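::Encoded backbone::
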Amino acid sequence: MFDTARMSRFLPSGLLAEPDPFDDLSPEDLHPELNPALRGVPPAGSTPQVRDGMGQWANVVRSPVLAVDRALPVGDALGGLLPDGIRRGSTIGLSGVGARSLAFALMARATQVGSWVAVVGDADLSPAAAVEMGMSVERLIVVFPPSGAWASIVASLVGAVDLVLVASNHRLSASNSRRLAARCRESGSVLLYLSLGSNGLPPSVGPLDLSLSVARASWEGSAGSPAESPDEGVERLARLRTRRVEVVAEGRGMPPGGRRCEFLLPSLEGVLARL
């Protein structure tokens, strides 16, 4: 894992100080309505373009998963919710209670087969929790951009790694959101927006290809050992061991009304389990 200071050892100096991170995008890239062919994933046989100045670093972290693959794999537990995996070139929003754990579970299988994941600006990230959800942390990059460089850093990571997860505590302009979505379509990378609050994702992220929301969540457990209470005498302390959640998937490729599945997040084994 890397913070911004340490990344300077691995990234070209021009990467963190680029004046316009989107200057290589054509008008058709920035405005997909002008070019319907850009909607969806890159065509088979296409190769993600790596911007000038970051080729050396991209060659280090670039996934061995072929760019012509139209989807990144997901674990068996998520097969009912996302039977076709994670569509390359897409933008995904995750929200609700347990959204971070859901994001880890969503990306775990891809890291196991060689994909890299970059997490941007999530100060509460727990590597231990990522491991419990099955992620290969040796393919996890954690980045804390300096003030004012957030969009540039994210734009640089998109196209260099397969999955980029960004925390919702960053203010993103609608224009930058549109440009990042265009870069995803161009490169085949997947950009995930993580909402950590109760208000969901800000409207500025624009329309997303896929939305995964935790609609309901409740902890389950069993009675523990007796404990003394000065007010109530002897009582039993409950042990909350599993959390039952309902996840709703809506967006491109989903049936009308979306697709709903119930999971334990976490299960007794600490991972995502389908009910």
